[in-house]
Amino acid sequence: MNDVLLRLLRASRGAGVRISVAEAIDAFQAAEVAGFSDRTLLKDSLSLTLAKTVEEKQLFERTFDLYFSRDAVSSTAETGQSSENGGATLELEGEPGMSGSPGEGSGGGGGQGGLSRMMQENDQVGLTAAMERAGEAVGVSNISLFTQTNLYARRILEQMGMRELEREIEQARQVEDYALLDRLERARTELIEQARAFVERQLALFAAGSTRELQERILRTARLSELDRRDFIRMRALVRDLAKKLASRYGRNRKRDRKGVLDTRRTMRRNMAYDGIPFRTVWKREKIDKPLLMFLYCLTDVMSDIRSFAFSSNLEEVSRILEKEDTEEAITQILERIGFGSTNYGLSLADFENLAMGDLDRKTTVIILGDARGNRTEPRTDLMKSIFDRAGRVVWLNPEYRASWGTGDSDMLKYLPFCHQATVCNTIGTLERVVTDLIKEQA
Amino acid sequence: MNQIISDQIASIERVEAGLVSAGYIPSRQICTALFLAIRLQKPILVEGPAGVGKTELAKATSQFLDLPLIRMQCYDGLDESKALYEWKYGKQLLYTQILRDKLASTFADTDTMDEAMTRLGDVGEMFFSEMFLEPRPLLKALQQPQGSVLLVDEIDKADEEFEAFLLEILSDYQVTIPELGPFRADVPPIVLLTSNNTRDLGDAMKRRCLHLHIGYPEAKLEERIIETRVPGAQASLRKQLVNYVQQLRGLDLRKLPSVSETIDWARALLLMHATELDAQLVADTLNVLLKFEGDMASVGPKVGELTYKAREA
């Protein structure tokens, strides 16, 4: 039983539920108390101990259902029987753990004619158990890539006694017992299908995590401009994770001591025990404001309290669109309104002056994301300078490598003196680093 | 854990029956959570929107287990002296004043300073004893001889320091008072923490708790809740008003009506002697359900349609 739970934990981790060792121990205790006979009860108990957010609960429940829904080997079984099997599967989960004792489970002896007997008698429960045992023996839960499906399916079949079955089919052919031959062959085809399906389910359960990890690792280092459209959704999820991580780390009200200013009220209160004689002093603390970021050009929602602008030939505020619509729709709308023009940084900065210059103060960070290629138009560095003078920080994120700054029509070097920081930003990885640095400096 | 309580939570069905007897209609998950929490002696962290009965669950638990309910409301700036214990300074001062003569006579026959100090030491111990200790909710919960239900309400409102401080109590059911030494609960309290998710709680906190999410109830459960809480409402009205609220929850509103709002609405309708919903009645009483002007405005034009659907369903 322990193995079953452990594998479920592994599958859940793969699905994205964060489970610590302490929680795993809790889960075992909870399962012991709740018992294994009632599946919904077991699910509820495990969900209580393992999944600690609503999203995690959903993930866990889906994994749980998938894990225990190994439809018994019953595709051709009569309907009445299959429903019976559905009820029986949970009890079967226990068997792999004790499979050592009856001689047939261990080693290669799953069959010895047992396989063909089970198939002929349509013993679905027995077949399912045998497949589980075989899967255990060949370590199917280690599967990590879909290309391994056939390999594992074949190993499972061998473990179950496929050779025996082949021999019996051969014998049947020799003695020309066509009825038996036909039955056995059909059963064999079916069994192969079922084994494949079984392995595929295992793949979905156990490999989901590693495949996703791999993809995400690749995505994190991929250049943003070279992303495929189909990776877009996953990318958004990554950015959202990043944003959430940053927001919960820096979004809280933090305080720091203002050294040297006495908080009289608290000092009096603290020292009541000493008859009002101030032994222990309490200093005033000030709240650290949440970082307020102002994105000049940004299509990802990284933090709250931001105003966003988009520009090409001219500049418009897009905060409302980003707030109201979901990202995909918002991008379409924004592109419709200002996209496709040739970029003119001078005009865009002039628009920005009209729209937001008055709101800039020491607390504001202005982040500009662009390649600074203004198609040989007037760069208006005077406006850039006044932004630089008014705002607390000006950060320029440039998707081009440093070496190409200032080449051709790039005005990056002209803007550079008016940025507190200018960084190459072209992958999720660099974005994360840049944003983290930004927030740290603000705080 | 005493015999009566372990009988009362012998099975999940017993827990459910107990909660129902206290007037709380629980979902399956809630019963499982409470059952496991008591068996495994773990706190439950209850999350969910406002008004779905998080606090009510603690009250019902204390009622059916017949244990005292000790409630601690969290807020920004809550500290140990308000949550754990405080010395009764006034009483200490008063006693020293009254006992001044006695003290003088105690010291009268001492010859050296050392001797006086030793005696003073003995007296000083007396002033920092349980007699002068003012237990605040957390300590009080640990002191209850029969055990208790400790409700730490809106833990997300307290600051992180307090959350960290709570960890010791939640894992060992033990606190240390510097002057007196560690206090350990004879019977660990049943701890419920509620959170409205205004901020993410720390992982350490979440790890120590069972995590129960109470969402909006399904129509059937909600009907049962109304039946228990507002017994006067007729079955047909009950069904209609629950249907109506369920429909509202499907809309895009700023604050969705919760169970507590449904109960309030049922009471309001009962007061108005309503036996059936009609559009006019709903429009008049909508402010019981919806708490924002914008929500009222967006639901207003749909009242007729929603009422019709609620009656037909």
How is the CATH topology of the largest domain in chain B named? Rossmann fold
- Rough outline of chain B: elongated
What is the number of E strands of chain B? 9
Q: Uncertain runs of chain A with pLDDT below 50, 5 residues or more?
A: 71-112, 290-304
Rg of chain A (C-alpha, Å)? 32 Å
| Main pleated-sheet profile of chain B | 5 strands, parallel
How do the SSEs of chain A run, as a string of H and E?
Answer: HHHHHHHHHHHHEHEEEEHHHEHEHEH
Order of strands, widest sheet of chain A: 3-6-7-8
How many helices of chain A does DSSP assign?
A: 19
By CATH, the architecture of the largest domain in chain B is named 3-Layer(aba) Sandwich
Q: How far apart lie the N and C ends of chain A? A: 50 Å
The proportion of residues in beta strands of chain A is 5-15%
Structural shape of chain A: flat
Note the quaternary state here: heterodimer
- What structural category arises from helix and sheet content of chain B? alpha/beta
